[in-house]
Amino acid sequence: MNNAALVAKGITKYFHDPVTMQVLKGIDMQVSKGEFVSIVGKSGCGKSTLLYVLSTMDTDYEGTLEINGIRTTGLSQNQLARIRNESIGFVFQFHYLLPDFTCLKNVMIPALRLGKLSYKEAEETAYAKLKMFGVEEQALKKAGKLSGGQQQRVAIARALVNDPAIIMGDEPTGNLDSKNTGIVFDLFRQLSQEYKQTIITVTHDNDFAQRSDRIIEMADGEIVRHTGA
Amino acid sequence: MKINVNTEIALTYLSSRKKQTVVAALGVMFGISMFIFMQSLMKGTNDYFEKMSFTNTPHIRLYNENKVADNHMLRAFLPDPSEKILTNPKQLKESQGLTDPYGIITLIRRNREVKNVTPQVTGNVIYTSGSVELPGNVAGVQIEEENEMFDVQGNMVSGNLHDLDRVHNSILIGKGIADKLSLHVGDNITVRSGNGNALVMRVVGIFSTTVKAVDETKSYANISVVQSLMGKDRSYVTEIKVNVNDYNNAPAVAREIEAITGYKAEDWIKANEQLKAGFKIRAVILNSVIGVILLVAGFGIYNILNMTIYEKIKEIAILKAQGFAGRAVTSIFLQQAIMIGVMGGVVGITFGFLLTLMVSRIYIGAGMLKYLPMSFYVPHYVEALCFGILTTIAAGYFPARKAAKVDPVNIIRG
């Protein structure tokens, strides 16, 4: 099991509002290091809910979750925050940059929080990440002043700044045109192949899903099919 | 310079919302400057009244208290409590004077706290000039010592108080007496004591204390003159007045003096209960006003931080998703509150000082009071800053804790 980046066993989750409803029905899954996994399914099938459970942000579930061999189920919020900071990078459908900060600062903040790099090193790393996505020229602009595509690329750069073992995306290309989607996909591909970073994304984009290593298809809170593993 | 990432975020939030930051800081500033201003005014006024009260009250007054006859002497002969003793409680016909006053003065002078000691003979008299009679009292004093303790010179309107020692049978009279009897420096006045002795005295000075009741009754004469006017000998002293180095120690010194002399020693606090009551009432008024001001400033900060948190709730969620623990989020918002507090505090202290300075220049001109009495007392400024910052911390704590509890999943998923 040493090769597993993430192991989930019997993940079960209920929504209680407005009526109690089971959204996840005992999901077992395992993702290897360096694997590029897409989770697909119809709206309401529970794929996003699953992703938030896997991300450790949602702790209201039954079952167990292991990330990089560490059992995260039952850890305190502060411990989970530390794990997220260090080993998980997030990309959301909406960029969620902090509009009052420059792009560079936005990317630097998780690195500064982690505290492994000096201010100067964090700045350099952040700049290198921006460069990877071709937005280095926007580095000193306020994040609120960028175009949607640029913002999303800065947001991805931010997810990568701490070199997380796992990158999770909730429709990361949902707001991007096909050109930008292509750029993002190629980068994900490169990260998983060259840097052995694990990528788990939830997507509606079939093209995007088809080109990943494995497709996990969900329906009604259950995994119905693994494709391409 | 290495600053913590939380601090950096707090600073950015503050500087990107300058208007709100300034408004919040102004609230604190106003609270703190009012705190300083009111404290300075109150302390200034209290100090002034204390000082005023010492212009005619000594720190400690030693006198022979009238006692009512009781049966304690008879009990020495009839120790059996079953035997009833009937007494007729009456004022003892005893000398008003102190026994061995100069011995007592020597004893009192040994106390290191004591600064001045002076004997005084007070007598009720009737002033007569022509056909007009006026009741009053004459204080037989050693004028040099009296002047040192009560600044008699400062109240002199005309004449020279030192003439009291130079001119035989001389007297200093209050301005009210001088006006009513139409007397000037150099005129003669007849002073008659209760036992019928009369003495024609020369007015060598007129004083005015701004207290009408004093100016219309009081006069000073040399102690030996009053002793002879009263028909008493040179050892007759009705009270001994004592000033100590620090008047706040007066009660303790008074107790010591009482213990060694056996006479009643009344300190200025007991003699001026109403003054102290006034201080207390003013303190209550002041503290409630300041409390309300700081409370309002605190609510201002609370409100602004709460609004910030609602506005930034997505950003908070994303910070938490990126691994900011609840503690870090609390720290970001608490630091904003503290920064507002410190900014408002520093400006408030400056403004409070300027306000105090300005008001201290306002001319009042009532009685002896020329300008509003304001005190510039450093601990007030320190207190104000501490209270201000404590208020902002208290006001910032609740919104900050709320921010820490933001659930990123709920916010990000909408």
Automatic annotation (TrEMBL), chain A:
MF annotations from Gene Ontology: ATP binding
Entry keyword annotation includes Repeat: no
Gene3D superfamilies, per the entry: P-loop containing nucleotide triphosphate hydrolases (3.40.50.300)
Keywords: ATP-binding, Nucleotide-binding, Translocase, Transport
Location of the ABC transporter domain: 6-229
Residue intervals passing through the bilayer: none
SUPFAM superfamilies: P-loop containing nucleoside triphosphate hydrolases
Keyword Translocase listed: yes
Pfam families: ABC_tran
PANTHER family noted in UniProt: ALPHA-D-RIBOSE 1-METHYLPHOSPHONATE 5-TRIPHOSPHATE SYNTHASE SUBUNIT PHNL (PTHR42798:SF7), LIPOPROTEIN-RELEASING SYSTEM ATP-BINDING PROTEIN LOLD (PTHR42798)
Family under the similarity heading: Belongs to the ABC transporter superfamily.
Protein name stated in the entry: ABC transporter ATP-binding protein
Organism: Nemorincola caseinilytica
UniProtKB/TrEMBL annotation, chain B:
Keyword Nucleotide-binding part of the UniProt annotation: no
Membrane-topology annotation of the record: Multi-pass membrane protein
Nucleotide-binding listed as a keyword: no
Domain ABC3 transporter permease C-terminal: 288-408
Domain of life, source organism: Bacteria
Transmembrane segments: 21-42, 284-305, 337-364, 376-398
Residues of the MacB-like periplasmic core domain: 21-260
Pfam families tied to this protein: FtsX, MacB_PCD
InterPro entries listed in its UniProt record: ABC3_permease_C (IPR003838), Lipoprotein-release_system (IPR051447), MacB_PCD (IPR025857)
Coiled-coil portions: none
The entry's keywords: Cell membrane, Membrane, Transmembrane, Transmembrane helix
Subcellular location: Cell membrane
Similarity annotation: Belongs to the ABC-4 integral membrane protein family. LolC/E subfamily.
Listed name of the protein: ABC transporter permease
